Amino acid sequence: MSSTIDLRSDTVTRPTPAMSDAMAHADVGDDVFGDDPTVNRLETVAAATIGKEAAMFVPSGTMANLTCLLAHCGRGQKVIVGDQAHILHYEGAGASALGGLMYRPVPTLPDGRLSVTDVEEASRPPGSNLHYAPPGVICVENTHNRCGGRVVPPDHVEEIAALAADRGLPVHLDGARIFNAAAASARPVTDWTRHVTSVQFCLSKGLGAPVGSMVAGSADFVARARRYRKMLGGGMRQAGVIAAAGLVALETGPGRLAEDHANARMLARRLADMPGVVIDLAAIETNIVVFEPPPAWTQEAFLAAVKEAGVLLVPFGGRRVRAVTHRDVSREDCERAAEIIAQLVR
Question: Of 253, 287, 321, which residue constitutes the final position of a domain?
């Protein structure tokens, strides 16, 4: 096993022994025909957990978000999304390239919330004015990746949902790390999901599965999304082999996320004590730690130096660097990472 401490993302976790065992003994069938009992069970459990009528297993979070946008919107409609959203920055403009949809960014506040005034303006129907694209869907994100893993509170999602209802629009929640939000807030995920029309959450991030995400919503919505999953190449056959690991992740992953959050806070406090490091401790709410190295370091040189010393981080825009704690990095690993960074800073 490598001695490298991999803090690039919570997507780097390896299957647990329980996941590997479940995968090896999974009962499988052809999922495109609806015949895979393990996938069917995962979808039933996921829908119940998230408080929705139905759910669908998808290979990735990017595909999950895209199937939702395509199921909600027609060509030429606007996807109203925060200007710091994962959907906007990190998903290859799929809604535009493949769905003929227009991204309409609105300002994102530092804590991940959207400006409600700007959402109201962006979602205004064009009426008889032929110059404007009609709105199709409003997207929110939780936890918010580019804002440093911030928890967007349920009342804000409720406020956005009320505005959307007035406009007759659906709301999609990119809840890739929604279970981190729930753990950090000591609230059930349904406090957020009950306000939205559709939600996607990742099995392969904080929950630690090797692959997969879930889409959830009404039965009619999921049926539409399933058609787009097939169109995008996401219809899998004996997918129970990987769905089995997702079931283990969904059943065991949420209960241990507080450990990741505690490790992130410890790492952040250590970074805050280092001369020249810029970090906002108040913004460390979950498992994401964003900071700037001292001015003497370029971002590129800093990342190369910590990699050489055995710690993997990622660039995060400007001079910012991101570290993400997860199941496969222990408290001791995080303490050693902090000491390695401290030595470099000194």
Answer: 253
Per the structure, the count of domains in the chain is 2
Q: What's the start-to-end Cα distance of the chain, in Å? A: 29
Strand partners, 6: 312
Handedness of CA 291, 293, 298, 300 (dihedral sign): negative
HSE-up of 190 (CA within 13 Å, CB side)?
A: 8
Whole-structure pTM value: 0.96
Domain C-terminal end among 224, 253, 282: 253
Q: Which of 69, 306, 42 is nearest to 199 (CA)?
A: 69
Q: Is 211 helix (H, G, I), strand (E, B) or coil?
A: coil
Could you read off the pLDDT of 270-316 as tens digits, one per residue? 999 999 999 999 999 999 999 999 999 999 999 999 999 999 999 99
Q: Measured over all CA atoms, what is the biggest interatomic distance in the chain, rounded to whole angstroms?
A: 64
Q: Give the torsion sign (CA, 29, 213, 231, 165).
A: positive
